[in-house]
Amino acid sequence: GPLHAKIGRILVDSWNSMDETQRDHDETTLLLGVDQLNRGSTSITDPEELFELVELNMTSAGIASGTKTAVNVGAKYYRAALSVYGSEKLWKEHYSVALELHNGLAQCYRIMGDG
């Protein structure tokens, strides 16, 4: 719970403090941070921070689904983004983001051959 969220924040903050070149060569820090935040998402109560986690999952999904072999990892981040904020709430409050997430997830499933 809270410990995962704390670790995730530290990793994401570290990644955010890097310049663009460093970020491009160290995507693992972001992915690990987002994984930790997802594990601790039940302890995150601030709606703004939850929405930031949605956006971080979208970024992670884009990074992770760059190759066919990693597309299942991308799908994991899309599903997590929908889960942490609540899919129905996301549709109501952030329609375009919800649409982008569902389209990204559908694309991953298409590539994987699951629908």
Question: What's the structural blueprint in terms of helices and strands?
Answer:
Blueprint: H1 2-16, H2 20-25, H3 27-39, H4 47-64, H5 71-85, H6 87-93, H7 95-112
Helix pairs in contact: 1-3, 3-4, 4-5, 5-7, 6-7
Protein name: KIF-binding protein
Organism: Grammatophora oceanica
InterPro entries: Hybrid_Histidine_Kinase (IPR053159)
**Basic shape:** globular
Could you tell me the mean pLDDT? Answer: 90
Structural class: mainly alpha
Order of helices and strands: HHHHHHH
Q: Biggest β-sheet: count, sense, barrel?
A: none
- Extended strand count: 0
User: How many helices?
Assistant: 7
Residues in helix, %? over 70%
End-to-end distance, in Å?
33 Å
Number of domains as seen in the coordinates: 1
How much strand?
under 5%
Low-pLDDT sequence parts: none
Radius of gyration: 14 Å
Would you mind describing this structure in some detail?
This protein has 115 residues and is mainly alpha-helical. The protein has one domain. The protein is built from seven helices and no strands. The longest helix has 18 residues. It is globular and about 35 Å long. It starts with a helix and ends with a helix. The model has no long low-confidence stretch (mean pLDDT 90). It comes from Grammatophora oceanica. This is KIF-binding protein.
